[in-house]
Design a protein that fits this description.
The complex is a heterodimer of chains A (340) and B (539). Chain A is an alpha/beta fold and 340 residues long. Chain A has a domain of 185 residues: Lambda Exonuclease, Chain A (Alpha-Beta Complex), CATH 3.90.320. Chain A contains twelve helices and eight strands. In chain B, α6 runs antiparallel to α7 and α8 packs antiparallel against α9. In chain B, the strands form four sheets. A six-stranded antiparallel beta sheet of chain B has the order 11-12-13-10-9-14. In chain B, strands 4-3-2-7 form a four-stranded mixed beta sheet, sandwiched between helices. With 539 residues, chain B is an alpha+beta fold. Among the domains of chain B are: 232 residues, no CATH class; 99 residues, Elongation Factor Tu (Ef-tu), domain 3 (Beta Barrel), CATH 2.40.30. Chain B is globular. Chain B is 40% helix and 16% strand. The chains are: A alpha/beta (340), B alpha+beta (539). Chains A and B meet through α2, α9, α10, α11 and α12 of A and α1, α3, α7, α8 and α11 of B.
């Protein structure tokens, strides 16, 4: 909404075909009290326990509001762990503090093992073809599951005999069919990364405290006022933002207007050392600005000179062949050099 | 991204137009490529929605699936796709020229030359984007294990006749597309990105419309403005003016236009099935075909802009003269095409689901060789690419200032002339570092002897002494033209021009235990077993 009000709406949305397919697949996996899901889980992560024999508990988790549901989930987890049997929690609600404010998360399912271990289950509708799936999609699913594991760990810390498994179960359709298949994903790395990022996040109150008095992000405000309000929060735009954030097109426009080199990619910034703007880099390359003793400036000037020379020689070669009318012996470097 | 590429991108930002990254075209384009613009259904694995296919830019053939969840309609689509693609491939399979190939005699272990056929040209298939290449692979995988009624009369849901064959060919094309420098199945975005640097990031460069906007912006508009329009601009109905290049569709198109149209089609079909007499059936059949026509025109509407963009991209690429060594890489593509033709003709089973350890290692090794070869050939073909290597200290331009004859100290002395060259570049030379130059298309080797004036200063011209090692003929005196002359300006590279393959790999039967051991006896039959089919299969 804010992005639309700013005049840079983000092209996000989900196709109803994908939505329907995802829901239908999840319903199929969880049918019959999750019998198929528990069978897959036992096959991959059974760990010597007794097989779930259709008597797995499926506690009712409905309650009013996200806080209520989160409390209900914690209670159900405690009861299931104490009971020492298999239990399947369908769409539990978990709370996690992000930048000082609570965020509510809803994993597809959490399974309680008889030995008190909890396993996060992610059900995705992208296919696993010949036992391998698109790595970028699996990576995204693993990062998502790692956040659930972190949230579950908070609950497990106050539950006796509970432990959260760092292996999650990813359930996908097999090949081109609608049959579920599963794979175990170890999310220790993603969990560590997420934990570190969460502790490093600036708290929302601190960001708010840094804003001028009376700043509002109400989309009903006039665009100029909104623009100023958004500008008060310093962005750190990189092209990766485009895939994830509604405000990315707005930040990109600002970043481009400022001439920031990051608009071309994060790695570019590393290459260019202390030079941060497009105009600055080009001026340094052209020899108008910058200290020639700076290795970045020296390298840039050399790159610019080599590039200009190569383009010139190619041009000369093309003109030469055009005049003589011979077949272009395209770009053989010796020939190119001979023309100079 | 190297510094020289970054600089080109920054220049593009500054000028508002894409800047050249190459002065010649580094990929071969055939005279009659087959362009394929596929679309798929969101959220389904390989349930195609439609495609535009053809070799004539004025007359694409439109294939559409009115209800992607219906197996019969999908099979009809695939059969039609086979009819559009296979004749094109087969037209190239029969035009051959004689060629020679080295083969090792299994009995004696000796290498002999064998007369074989080589297709004079190969069928080139072009898709809009990298996702399109992946989709071709996926289609290939979904089709090649299918059984037709002829293969196995008892098979449930038999596939139309030529579908498994198309699957094998598409699998081959998809696999070949992973070889660096190959042009059998290029994506237009990759081709354009190789030759131009835009003022946006490489992530945004995957958008064909935005990429073309930077390379060839409409008059009076900068690349950035035109690209933004390509990314976001929508018409009165809320539809993108420049739809995604596929195979994925825009969710807004799915939700607002396609889903209602498919629903109308489903209703018309149910109504037709429940028609009570001939007259009613006729009327309802009319409704059904109207619903189908509507879906076809919707799909055509989102695919045509991509179709035109692909051809426009090809036009831009054809303006560049082809690099002289691109032909050599295309010959390798022709060998690969011919080899697959032979495998199909000799009745070999479809490609396995997973390569065995030896095949996988072979593929990896050949791709590494191809990558190194591609990098060397591009640098030799193109001064702009060479400039990047010179900046990295992997090549240098130098003027010959002095040539001194010298000979080896054996019984039959061979020439080993010492050549002094002057350069203002600082290549990474160590004692006896080999350097290469191109002499009539073949590499000539020299080695670095010493800096003539002692250790080089930071800048300014320095003299280097090189010793020429080969390509001077068999006599005592070097063959004419084989030794550089004073005054000549020569590009030397520190990388080899031809790449040798790695060590030979064992036969599959001798796979070491570290790599899973020899394949079991049932491996061959297991590999080609068709996918189990279920009534609700999606493909």
């Amino acid at each position: 909404m804010l992005a639309t009000a700013l005049g840079s709406p983000a092209p996000f949305g989900q196709s109803q075909f994908a939505f329907m397919r995802g829901n239908a697949f999840e319903a199929k996996v969880k049918a019959d009290g999750g019998a198929e899901l528990l069978r897959l889980l036992y096959e991959r992560l059974g760990g010597g326990a007794e097989a779930p024999a259709g008597d797995a508990a499926t506690p009712d988790l409905s309650a009013a509001g996200p806080e209520g549901r989160a409390a209900r989930t914690a209670l159900a987890l405690r009861e299931a762990t104490a009971a020492g049997g298999w239990a399947l929690l369908d769409h539990p609600m978990l709370a996690l503090e992000v930048a000082g404010s609570p965020a509510y998360l809803e994993p597809d399912a959490v399974v309680v093992h008889p030995d008190g271990r909890w396993t996060v289950v992610e059900i995705k509708s992208f296919p696993m073809i010949d036992a391998s799936a698109d790595p970028s999609k699996v990576g995204a699913a693993a990062r998502q599951a790692a956040v659930y594991v972190l949230a579950l760990e908070r609950v497990a810390a106050v539950t006796e005999g509970a432990e959260v498994g760092h292996q999650v179960l990813l359930v996908c359709p097999k090949d081109f069919s609608n049959l579920p298949t599963a794979s175990v994903v170890d999310v220790r790395k993603q969990r560590a990364v997420t934990r570190r990022q969460l502790t490093r996040l600036t708290r929302v109150e601190d960001i708010a405290a840094g804003l001028p008095e009376g700043t509002t992000f109400d989309p009903a405000c006039p665009p100029e006022e909104l623009d100023a309000a958004v500008a008060a929060v310093p962005p750190a735009y990189a092209p990766e933002c485009l895939a994830a954030c509604e405000l990315a097109f707005h930040c990109r426009a600002r970043s481009r207007a400022e001439g920031a080199v990051e608009t071309l990619g994060r790695s570019v910034r590393g290459e260019l050392g202390g030079l941060t703007t497009v105009a600055g880099v080009l001026a340094a390359a052209a020899g108008k600005e910058g200290d020639p003793a700076d290795p970045t400036v020296a390298a840039l000037r050399r790159a610019a000179a080599l590039r200009a020379e190569a383009l010139e020689s190619a041009e000369a070669l093309r003109d030469g062949t055009r005049e003589s009318g011979s077949v272009p012996r395209a770009g053989a470097p010796e020939g190119a050099a001979a023309c100079r | 991204m190297s510094l020289i590429t970054t600089l080109a991108r920054l220049e593009a930002v500054d000028t508002g137009r894409a800047q050249p990254l190459a002065t010649v075209r580094h990929r071969h384009l055939t005279d009659r490529p087959l362009v394929l613009v596929p679309l798929t259904t969101a959220g389904e694995a390989g349930a195609p929605l439609g495609a535009l296919v053809g070799t004539d830019r004025e007359a694409p053939r439109l294939l559409a699936v009115a209800q992607p969840r219906d197996r019969d309609l999908r099979f009809a689509f695939l059969a039609e796709l086979a009819e559009a693609v296979l004749p094109h491939i087969e037209a190239y399979a029969d035009v051959v020229e004689p060629a020679e190939r080295n083969e090792t005699d299994p009995a004696t272990g000796k290498k002999t030359k064998v007369e074989v056929e080589l297709c004079t040209d190969a069928a080139q298939l072009i898709v809009p984007s990298r996702a399109g290449v992946e989709f071709v692979r996926l289609l290939g995988r979904s089709m090649r294990f299918r059984r037709t009624a002829e293969d196995d009369p008892d098979t449930p849901y038999p596939a139309p006749a030529r579908v498994p064959l198309l699957g094998r060919w598409l699998t081959h094309y998809g696999e070949r597309a992973r070889v660096p420098g190959s042009s059998l199945l290029p994506a237009v975005t990759d081709l354009l990105n190789r030759h131009w640097a835009t003022g946006q990031s490489s992530l945004e460069d995957q958008h064909l419309g935005a990429l073309l906007a930077w390379i060839d912006p409409p008059a009076g508009s900068s690349g950035a403005e035109a690209a933004l329009r390509a990314e976001l601009a929508r018409d009165g109905e809320g539809q993108l003016l420049c739809p995604p290049a596929g195979p994925a569709t825009d969710p807004d198109f799915d939700n607002r236009l396609l889903a209602p149209a498919i629903e109308r089609y489903d209703r018309a079909r149910t109504a037709l099935a429940s028609a009570e007499d001939g007259l009613a059936a006729d009327a309802r059949l009319g409704e059904l075909s109207a619903a189908e026509r509507e879906i076809r025109s919707l799909l055509a509407r989102v695919m045509l802009p991509t179709w035109d963009a692909v051809w426009r991209g090809l036009d831009l690429l054809r303006e560049l003269p082809e690099g002289s060594r691109a032909e050599d890489r295309w010959t390798r593509d022709r060998w690969s095409f011919t080899a697959h033709r032979d495998r199909v003709r000799s009745g070999e089973p479809p490609q396995p689901r997973r390569d065995d350890a030896v095949t996988a290692a072979q593929k990896l090794a050949s791709r590494e060789t191809a990558q190194a070869q591609l990098e060397a050939q591009e640098a030799l073909d193109d001064p702009l690419v060479l400039a990047g290597r010179r900046l990295a200290g992997e090549a240098f331009l130098a003027t010959v200032s002095e040539v001194e004859m010298a000979y080896t100290e054996s019984k039959r002395p061979s020439p080993r002339p010492l050549v002094t060259v002057r350069t203002d570049e600082r290549p990474h030379l160590g004692e006896r570092t080999k350097v290469y130059r191109s002499l009539e298309g073949k590499p000539q080797t020299a080695e670095f002897v010493r800096y003539a004036d002692g250790p080089p200063a930071d800048d300014g011209e320095i003299p280097l002494v090189l010793r020429i090692l080969d390509r001077m003929g068999r006599g005592k005196e070097p063959a004419p033209g084989s030794v550089p002359e004073p005054g000549e300006r020569i590009a030397w590279t520190l990388f080899e021009h031809d790449q040798r393959g790695g060590p030979k790999l064992p036969d599959p039967e001798e796979t070491p235990w570290t790599h899973g051991g020899p394949p079991g006896a049932d491996a061959a039959t297991r590999a080609e077993r068709p996918d189990p089919v279920t009534p609700e299969d999606l493909l």
